[in-house]
Prior knowledge:
One of its GO terms (cellular component) is plasma membrane. Helix 11 packs antiparallel against helix 12. The chain contains twelve helices and no strands. It has a domain at 107-299: MetI-like fold (Orthogonal Bundle). The longest helix is centred in the middle third of the chain and has 37 residues, at 96-132. By secondary structure, the protein is mostly helical.
Amino acid sequence: MTAVTATPPVASPATEPQQPEGTQPSAAPKAARKRRSRVAPVGLVLAIIVLAVAIAWAFVPSLFTGYDPLTGVPAEKLQAPSLAHPFGTDSIGRDLLARVIYGSVHSLTGALIAVLVGLVVGTTLGVIAGALGGIVDDIVMRIVDVLLSIPSLLLSLSIIILLGFGTVNAAIAVGVASIAAFARLVRSEVVKVRASDYIEAAYGSGGTTVHVLIRHVLPNSLTSVFALAALQFGTAILAISTLGFLGYGAPPPTPEWGLLIAEGRNYVATAWWLTTLPGLIVVAVVVSANRLSSALARRTP
């Protein structure tokens, strides 16, 4: 009889070593994931920088250019981009970069007004519909459905024709077109929060409807609304620029972004920078606002 000796199994190099029973896994991977989560993506950082520069243009334009946006030098008309004029000059010799910088206050202010109109009115309608329910909810949401069925540009044009031309009126028109989106989102959030246990506990402890709405429902319903507000900010810039391009926004010679693009469309073949460079600024700001909105939406629980 020959003795057979057992050969210990050889661990495969591709197999990870097993943790002994009763021991906790290493905290190193968790720490690495936390460090990675703290590092902001490059795209988000660039978006914040672009928005910060645009806001700085609106508040302190004189820090970024020494040219007058309304006065030009006829002898320097339609000059291509250069060191003296990074965005070139327009048909009457005005520095295009100066007009873009000074025009940011009109476009950004208009977008802010539009977002505030949609946010305030839409949030109010959404809270009323979600909190009261019943026939009030049905009436409000049918109105919202009607607003959603109308194309936003057509609705904005209809409102601005009634109000008159101008940046503020265009912003109000764009804001009215965004009310339905805010109302629908807020209503769904209020309905979801209203069914929570802590809301029932708040009512059980003697809280009134107004107190519970202000103290508990609203703070827990507006987290996702901020992401929509950032998205609507970029959309409002694009919509106001579109209205300005069509001639419904600020009158000439106001350096509004949409109007700048409209003024350069007759020179596309000979002076491409008059439409291309302001258009790129609009695209950069809108994309940056959308990127910030996506980051806020991912952080929403």
